[in-house]
Amino acid sequence: xxxxxxxxxxxxxxxxxxxxxxxxxxxxxxxxxxxxxxxxxxxxxxxxxxxxxxxxxxxxxxxxxxxxxxxxxxxxxxxxxxxxxxxxxxxxxxxxxxxxxxxxxxxxxxxxxxxxxxxxxxxxxxxxxxxxxxxxxxxxxxxxxxxxxxxxxxxxxxxx
Length: 160
Description:
Helices cover 42% and strands 16% of the residues. It is of the alpha/beta class.
């Protein structure tokens, strides 16, 4: 099975899955330099449903969100790496800064966000509410970040 698919194709797949009674969870993010927080979030999101779809920020959207020097890993390689996670069923790459458009096209059962959000602070909460998509918070406490990992790496190598 090819995991990395376009939004139109994935919309058809999700519609069929939902007709069969499957609960589809959609999670999204940059996933630039993977760390344990990413894994814990995605596994917790997957546990909320039958199918996990990952919305992966494109290189251009990562640059807009994270700034100069990001992403560290290009979107094609990030998608390839994360496609190896057995608990991820599908991956879709999106260019926008939020996943409002992607949620409107895909219409999953749930939209999962990490614990750095609350149901009331999720940027796409209004779109989800409008579409009848339930917002869920998943993962462990947000005490891991790619930014902190980059700082730690740079700190260790600058000392030499």
